[in-house]
Amino acid sequence: MIRRFLEDAVFSDSMGRQMRFITGPRQSGKTTMAKEKLSAENCSEFYYNWDSQQVKRRYRSDGDFLAPELIKKKGRKVWVCFDEIHKMPKWKNIAKDFFDSHENKAVFIITGSARLDVFRKTGDSLAGRYFPFRLNPLMLAEISGSAARDVMDTGTAAGYIEKRIRNSKSASSLMEQIFRFSGFPEPCLKKDKVFASKWHDNYFERVIKEDIRELSSIHQLEKISDMISLIPARIGSPLSVNSLKEDLELNHATVKNYIKYLKLTYVLFEMEPYTKKINRPVKKEKKVYLYNIAVVKDEGPKFENYA
User: Fold this and answer.
1) Quick one: how far is CA 250 from the chain centroid?
2) What confidence tens digit (pLDDT) does each residue in 12-65 have?
3) Which of 124, 143, 166, 173 is most buried when burial is the number of CB atoms within 10 A of its CB?
4) Edge-to-edge strand ranges of the sheet holding 78-83
5) How large is the angle between the packed helices 252-264 and 221-230, nearest 10 degrees?
6) Looking at the predicted structure, is the pLDDT value of residue 289 above 60?
7) What's the CA gap between 208 and 68, in Å, rounded?
8) Structural domains in the chain, sorted by start
């Protein structure tokens, strides 16, 4: 079992009564982290996957199915995980009702990926009831078993990187493992080249056909796939929208829209160019980086993407 650094914040008593919303890239370990917390608290039976027809039927027959289960705990505060609840119609109202009814008896963990992150930002029915967190793919220090304090910022980029490497066991081989298989737990820990290749292909296919299709009105999904295939060669350099526009034979606004949805679905993230003129808008092109570094081929850009 690999302990994730985010656990210290998400499961801290300092978070109080608030629901803990955990989002992030698909298959980055959100459900695993939540299940391990429930298991440690002897609350495994309080994991509910709302993708399951059984859970949906249970809710339809009893809108507060938690109440009798909490009674069995005889007043002990329990941890509850609602996984993929955002796929339910009016899910915010459902989560709000459970929270308002049982906030003194339960701590709620809500897990999901892009759709949860986007939908939680619309409306205010859950205002004041949750804290958002994002779980990224595995870091070198997490795989090596380092403590979170061993990789805290030292004030300089060089010092930060040196500290991360120095406090890692077999840092070189573990770094190679992440570079070859990515930081996503399943391919990274399995360490099988054939499996990893199939996993990465399937990963992007699911992001496109499920997440982007659900969130957008984009019809040319094959163009999104083409864009994803073009991004790795552009890591490390400012991303030219005009260049992508020509390669994809799309207009400027459409390319910008595609980039927006690739950000929303945790395929990539942007980095603003450095400037000392913070009071002026930055007009230079941004750099983009991928959450899945295994698909970046060149070692230099791959390391920059990771660091």
Assistant:
1) 29
2) 999 999 999 999 999 999 999 999 999 999 999 999 999 999 999 999 999 999
3) 143
4) 47-49, 78-83, 106-111, 19-23, 130-134
5) 80
6) yes
7) 40
8) 6-134 (3.40.50.300), 138-181 (no CATH), 192-300 (1.10.10.10)
Q: Is 82 exposed, middle or buried (0-12, 13-18, 19+ CB in 10 A)?
A: buried
The first and second tokens of residue 262, run together, are 């690739």
Separation of alpha carbons 299 and 179, rounded Å: 8
Question: Any residues with CB less than 8 A from the CB of 241 and at least 6 apart, and which?
Answer: 252, 255, 256, 259, 285
- Is residue 192 within 8 Å of 201, Cβ to Cβ? no
Alpha helices in 121-166 (DSSP H): 140-144, 157-166
Q: Residue 268: helix, strand or coil by DSSP?
A: strand
Reported pTM: 0.88
Half-sphere exposure at residue 169, Cβ-oriented, CA atoms within 13 angstroms: 6
Contact 45, 55 (CB under 8 A): no
Dump pLDDT digits (tens) for 204-251: 999 999 999 988 888 889 999 999 999 999 999 999 999 999 999 999
